[in-house]
Amino acid sequence: MADEPLVLGIETSCDETGVGIVRGTTLLADAIASSVDEHARFGGVVPEVASRAHLEAMVPTIERALKEAGVSAKDLDGIAVTAGPGLAGALLVGVSAAKAYAYALGKPLYGVNHLASHICVDQLEHGALPEPTMALLVSGGHSSLLLSSDITSDVRPMGATIDDAAGEAFDKIARVLNLGFPGGPVIDRYAKEGDPAAIAFPRGLTGPRDAAYDFSFSGLKTAVARWIEAKRAAGEDVPVRDVAASFQEAVVDVLTRKAVRACRDEGVDHLMIGGGVAANSRLRVLAQERCEAAGIRLRVPRPKLCTDNGAMVAALGAEMVARGRAASDWDLSADSSLPVTDTHVPGRSHDHDHGHDHDHVHEVSKGNLYS
Amino acid sequence: MLLLALDTATPAVTVALHDGTSVIAASSQVDARRHGELLLPAVDRVLAEAGLRLDAVTGIVVGVGPGPYTGLRVGLMTADTFGLALGIPVHGLCTLDGLAYAADRSIADGPFVVATDARRKEVYWARYADSRTRVTEPAVDRPGDLDIGGLPAVGAGALLYPDTFPDAREPEHVSAAALASLAAERLAAGEELEAPRPLYLRRPDAQVPKNYKVVTPK
Ligand SMILES: [Zn+2]
User: Fold this and answer.
1) What is the ipTM of this complex?
2) At CA A220, angle to CA A219 and CA A224, rounded to 5?
3) Are residues B183 and B82 in the same domain?
4) pLDDT tens digits for chain B (218 residues)?
5) What is the spatial distance between Cα A49 and Cα A87, in angstroms, rounded to a whole number?
């Protein structure tokens, strides 16, 4: 449908330089340059290494996305960019690029929320998001349970981790087991050959008086590390596959239990799961089982759309255009702690002006933008 | 020729337009923490002042530092992306060269030194034979480790450390007007400018995590 908004999205909140292009809810391009290999030897993402890589990768990645989509930059209806949350210096590279690109092309700029983008990306896979949608976002940076009735304006936090993100726990346990970085895929692989019931690791924050929708993975991480150390101290072999399976089971058990409970409590019949940990095969299987049992429809995008990418930012940007949300100002800043409730960063003069036509939204000085 | 010059390698966010003969509009604001917010509105303002649109620009000139990285990248990323969107060349110039070019006439025939603030009690610096001729590669050092033999020096780094730079002078920060003029002069002379790649001069701070920390209490 040619009248649906054509939007390019830029994502640089962590170590992936992502540029995606969508038309409405149709994915046209999803170009990614990752600096993950440069971080591997550090055992985690090094912010300055990520920022340097974003600067080098940005222009080639934009060019690749345009080529992949087979569209011309002048036909875009808007440029969207992750304004936060994320690594401050990394975000700033993407925001600088998006501003310059939008300004030079004479297109509106939409600074959008990274977490809302993770939810919105599912539109590219399964069509328009049901309203409301419950979303479980799990990655190395986030573990959140969010409820959204309109992805462009209303995202409500139900719960979040009180210590480590789920993906961080995977990375740490992988390091204890000397399996390298990132930990998620390798733990998943070992776990497939292990027994998830071999070791009873604790389920954090699942007591009757604990916060119903919050998560905690720090205690689990410590328990697993101690168990491994005890084995090593006793001179015994560590059963890597069973440890991986049992640890993974503890994480996905809590995640899916709480997500399904939140859906039930709120009367929501859809659950979407996003973020890098959504690629975990056991999480997908267990979520499917429990959702089916509870009469909830599960939506999980393909793994490449679950991890950080530009398409998700473009997806939310397209929705902003489609719903007539206000564009951002040229002084848009990167906000490393942008609240999840701020789905986007509208320009100051348009704060309560949702019906505004995006054709003339941010003219700092009229003559300079459009021919 | 219409050059748009910008530099975010020092606390100044500075933008200028040069028509091949002279600077026709310029803006400089000093705010080390808001490069990202200030740069695009400054570009917009400078173009408005000249009554021109960005697509009239025929080349971008950007200060490549050395400078504190986060701010430095704002200018470079903006320049790169303008170049991509408009299909015009992007030229790099050493930020210290811009400061040297703007040095006062009384010292411009050299020799002199340019030094900017590298934070962490260090300076980015280079030696100049005259205001157009740099004779050393830009370096980052502790002022106490330098002996510049009492030469005159310009830049915030010189003004900050009088023991090392006894004859320190303005300008404190680079101006895009100076960068644009220098670039226009070099381009007119048929010289090639540098690639628009950052001069970081330091490796990224990256603590390699020590071997896995044992959490079991002793
Ligand atoms: Zn993410």
Assistant:
1) 0.94
2) 120
3) yes
4) 999 999 999 999 999 999 999 999 999 999 989 999 999 999 999 999 999 999 999 999 999 999 999 999 999 999 999 999 999 999 999 999 999 999 999 999 989 999 999 999 999 999 999 999 999 999 999 999 999 999 999 999 999 999 999 999 999 999 999 999 999 999 999 999 999 999 999 888 766 544 444 444 43
5) 11
| Rounded distance between C-alpha atoms, residue A245 and residue A257, angstroms | 18
In a domain, B199, yes or no: no
Identify the residue among B38, B39, B81, B210 best suited for mutation to test binding to A, counting A beta carbons within 10 A and taking the highest. B81
Tell me which chain A residues have a C-beta less than 8 angstroms from the C-beta of B83: 59
Burial label for A348, CB within 10 Å (0-12, 13-18, 19+), is exposed
Q: Which residue of B has its CA nearest to A88?
A: B70
**Which residue range is the domain that position B78 belongs to?**
3-94+174-188
Taking each helix axis as running N to C, give the angle between helix A166-176 and helix A240-266, from 0 to 180 degrees, rounded to the nearest 10. 170
Counting the structural domains of chain B, the total is 2
Asked whether the beta carbons of residue A333 and residue B36 sit closer than 8 angstroms, the reply is yes
| SS3 state at A156 | strand
Place of tokens 């992502």: A18
Residue B179 and residue B124 share a domain: no
Are B136 and B71 in the same domain? no
* Shortest CA distance from B53: residue in chain A: A368
Chain A residues lying within 8 Å of B70, measured CB to CB? 51, 88-89, 92
A354 pLDDT exceeds 60? no
Distance CA A26, CA A240 (A): 42
Instruction: Name the residue among B38, B48, B205 with its Cβ closest to that of A367.
Output: B48
Domain CATH code at residue B75: 3.30.420.40
